[in-house]
Amino acid sequence: MLFSRLQLAVSGEFAKFSKGQWLETVKFQWRTFKDPNLKRQFKQLSVLGTAALPEDKYEKYEKTVADMESIYSKAKICAYNNSEKCDLSLEPEMTEILANSRNEAELKHIWTEWRKQTGATIRPLYNDYVKLLNEAARLNNFTDAAEYWLNSYDTPDFKEQVAELWKQLRPFYLEVHAYMRRKLREKYGESIVSKRGPIPAHLLGNMWAQTWGNIAELGIPYPDVKPEDITKYLVQQKFTPLKMFKTAEEFFTSINLSPMTEEFWKYSVIEKPKDRDIVCHASAWDFYNGRDFRIKQCTEVSEEDFVTVHHEMGHIEYYMQYKDQPFIYREGANPGFHEAIGDVIALSVITPKHLSRIGLLPNVTQSKEADLNYLMKVALDKIVFLPFGYLMDLWRWQVFKGTIPEKDYNCEWWKLRLNYQGVKPPTVRSEKDFDPAAKYHIVSSTPYIRYFVSFILQFQFHEALCTRAGEFDPNNPSEKPLHQCDIYQSKEAGNLLKTVLEMGSSKPWPDALEVITGQRNMDAGPLLSYFAPIHNWLKEENKKSGEYVGWESTEKGDI
Ligand SMILES: O=C(CCC(O)(O)[C@H](Cc1ccccc1)NC(=O)c1ccccc1)N[C@@H](Cc1c[nH]c2ccccc12)C(=O)O
Ligand SMILES: [Zn+2]
């Protein structure tokens, strides 16, 4: 508790300081300023955030979020069929079981017990949090917290743009969903996975069913050309978390981005401590002194964590490139940019070509079948993620606006999960439960639409950087397919990326996007063309097997 008291004291101090600064800036008629740069800085400075709350309410807000996060980070459950062993944490134990167990009863146990430990206890706190965040939003002249969060994109029709992107991508998601439902039905039987209904959420390899890459082996199109699991090679070659970080760093420096600083290696926490509970959800921190940048990650030696290392290091690279900007511009062009950088690099790293190049895979068989296997695996992480990345804030925007009243929190959550993801809970849920709180970003008040935006942008960035690296030719896409591109050691690609990272938030995000891609809008095109081969294969496959594409909302026998 000492640590959290310290944390509260520091955030209180920072709130007082920033309120003082804010009072200075609002004295100016900055809206009439002529210099666009000065006007932009004052505009960004004029949003104070939660520090606008009176001191007592600010402390209540900070304490409520800290308590929700603490319950989430400390939650433990008992193992399946062993009520003696009750020290299972979300990371690594529950995450590992959901990824690797194929025992339906065990998966149901873990899924349900985690939600018992997080949802019911957090529910009363969440209601206070919503009221206080809305009050802070109004003190910043926003109608509610939804508008306050959306202000980060500074785009009047942002919600419409996101809805349009989802409309373009939903048909592809439905094909993946229908195909995997069939594979899961073949594995677990029709009594558990129906022909035309939603998929039970506990079978999908992830606590939130947000990515299905961990069950890729159930859906590989050509099993006899099965892609090797990188985890096996990471373990075989005695990779440690440190070696995973050093390997990731070497990719960034190979494209002329910056190495991690001395402080980074000195102060980062890259393994779960044995002696204390920490918030294990990965994060990257900027200490705003141009040298001190840190990652906190409970890293396991696994493929999934190797990708997350690159995701977190992408944040650090952004911090380092914009460290000389004025304080107020030391942010991403928009929050989706910050989430996309590491993932763009990871798109090159996970290619069989790159992994065999750095000795993490035996030399690969080039074939149409191997290609489709690879694309399926990436689609199970990238396409599958989109509905989840969207619905998280669809739910929260409605909660902040009051269109979802407290009494319907859980029911409306599952309506969105059914409508967008086509998943259903493995056990009956009620308003005694509060399943959104099973997800870190809900309890830590971290917006989520940034990841949906990132998953669109990262393919636009990938296409542009691969073109610059000579790894892709937009006029002749079939010669060098985008999904085989690896920008490793391309200084041209790295320098193009660096130009945007250095900008921070000093220009509107369409300007930053234009520097990399020549376009000013989010565009699903690059993502769709990256996955085109597997998209076509899935349409064929589902037609051949007569699979029902989509899902019915009420099932016979379901209450
Ligand atoms: O949450 C994360 C990674 C954690 C983070 O790097 O995004 C972290 C979340 C966080 C936010 C605020 C406080 C504490 C943690 N965000 C940052 O560290 C961060 C850094 C700079 C600016 C903004 C946020 N990923 C998401 C989804 C995701 C997107 N790309 C991925 C790639 C691999 C695995 C997961 C993801 C998730 O796990 O649901
Ligand atoms: Zn991130």
UniProtKB/TrEMBL annotation:
Cofactor(s) required, per the database record: Zn(2+)
Catalytic activity: Release of a C-terminal dipeptide, oligopeptide-|-Xaa-Yaa, when Xaa is not Pro, and Yaa is neither Asp nor Glu. Thus, conversion of angiotensin I to angiotensin II, with increase in vasoconstrictor activity, but no action on angiotensin II
Keywords, alphabetical: Carboxypeptidase, Disulfide bond, Glycoprotein, Hydrolase, Metal-binding, Metalloprotease, Protease, Signal, Zinc
Disulfide bridge partners, by residue number: 78-86, 280-298, 466-485
An annotated Gene Ontology molecular function: peptidyl-dipeptidase activity
Signal peptide limits: none
Top EC class for this record: hydrolase
Record InterPro entries: Peptidase_M2
EC numbers, comma separated: 3.4.-.-
Family statement drawn from the similarity comment of this UniProt entry: Belongs to the peptidase M2 family.
Record protein name field: Angiotensin-converting enzyme
Organism (species): Parthenolecanium corni
